[in-house]
Amino acid sequence: MHEFLVELTTTVPDGTDPAEVDRVRAAEAARAGELAADGHLVRLWRPVGELRSIGLWRADDEAALRRDVLGTLPLWPWMTATITALQSHPSDPGRADASA
What residues pair up with 7 in beta bridges, in sequence order? Predict the structure, then answer.
């Protein structure tokens, strides 16, 4: 699997019923847990004072990430995403082969 840095910003459409927002956010949390258990969602952060999220995600390729992973998030229709494909850096202390 490949790794991706994904910045997600959610914008709830004006006039959306607050109960619907609560329902979708609860479904989002459940789905994120499933994606983490499946190895797709590795880490997730929220910058201090901001409403966007930054995550480390894994998928076979960017198309699969959009279609099969992010596209299954209940909030996805309200999200904008910036996706950056990542590759290992030779100086990354977390590399599996760093000591080789």
Answer: 54, 82
